[in-house]
Amino acid sequence: MNDKQPIYILPESTERTIGKDAQRNNILAAKLVSDAVKTTLGPKGMDKMLVDGVGDITVTNDGITILEKMEMEHPAAKMMVEISKTQEEEVGDGTTTAVMLAGKLLENAEKLLDMKIHPTIITKGYNLASEKAKEFLEESSISVNENKNEILKKIVTTAMTGKGAETVKERFSEIIVNAVNQIQEGNNIDLNNIKIIKDKSNGINDTRLIRGVVIDKERVSIDMPSKINNPKIILFSEALELKNPDETKISISNPNQLQEFMDREENMLKEMVYKIKAINANVIFCQKGIDDVVQYYLAKEGIYACRRVAKSDMENLARATGAKIMSKLNEISEEDLGKAEIVEEVKHGEDPMTYIQGCENPKALTILIHGGSNHVMDEMERALKDGLGDVASVIKDGRIVPGAGAIEVELSKKLKEFSNSLPGREQLAVQEFANALEFIPVTLAENAGLDPIDILTELKAKHDQGEKNAGINIFTNKIEDAFEKGIIEPAKIKKQAISSSSEVAVMILRIDDVLASKSSGKGGMPAGMPMGGYPGME
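RE: above sequence
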């Protein structure tokens, strides 16, 4: 018999897309992700309203927040979300730029694929361009030495322009720079030491920096003082209770013995309070429980106490007040106590909090955001985190670049010059990488309602004349020197965006076969795919 039977190597529940179809589908998905966030870029960028399955609303123009809330289904789209997460974790800002660059790199690669250029050549060219772009970025960046704080404030102002916090960007820039300078230890900056608390009262202008810690705990007894001036603080990691010995039997034959046992227990608890009082401590934060009897005697002695304080809060209290976290009462001395100007209980609506303020040299701080609604405060928090990430990046890296699209145009110009020295087809890939960088200033212009072609042409002309800091000042609609106008960005953020975007673009371009198992619970659709099949997105 000559009839050949088909051979099945994959189960029927697997959908396979191969060759050009797989590449085009992935590129389309990446482009759609890029399009989803590009309107948020820049000072005139718009916001997105995202409504989840239970009706909760998020209003933001923060790239990472938008992508996480959108719950992407397409596997290539999920890879794009991953680079935004990497960007956020590494440098704290620039997520929109990274995603837009990745989408544009893949879109431009499609032109080369249409010219019958092999994906391997494109990826080689992109890798080459990425390394050269980072070299040129280093050359074009300048070191931060003089007027460091003023430059840092300008960086925060640039990061916040176009966000919900724009009206208070000057105030926020001062808060952020002061906070980062305070917690900095050498070249080490741990932004986890800056806690952000929200209070739905007053306006965003009332947002302030507290030289200390705010914890969401109240004093354990209303008989305790609500405010202690010049507190001496104990941080205790164990319970102020008597330990219950396991499997212990106590034989009591008459009521006197029972009373004697109870009195002894109370005396032991009372002794704990006397030990606290003996070292002149008047505030105690306990990581575990506090017995009712201990609470009573603490209140009687005028000692402020909080229980079940989170471990992270205990560590922040130690950094802020200088107290040591102790586990044995007998070993606590006055040298182990922390200091501050004031400890007090403050109520925000129905929620009481304990403020520890006025610490001498705190290495943990709190930014208290005020605002009229949760949506406003959430967006303020995102803006603050972007600003904190920018400042930390500059302090660690020490280098800055002009914003307003200036650095992208300069890198594009240098990459095009470099591409002319390449003999093979990689030259075309490097040129397309350079064109992708121009997508940033083009989008800035589009989002501001300007003609992108006119703006880009003028920008290129200025850079060809040697004005390497020329960028788009969106507020005057003119091409101006970005450094002179205070539009400054951290070099590290741009470097990370170039790395992340080129890496994901190269990875997606190398895929020519997609095997997707169908989910049994979605009517036979492939797992991780949108309804309607592989090519598109919902």
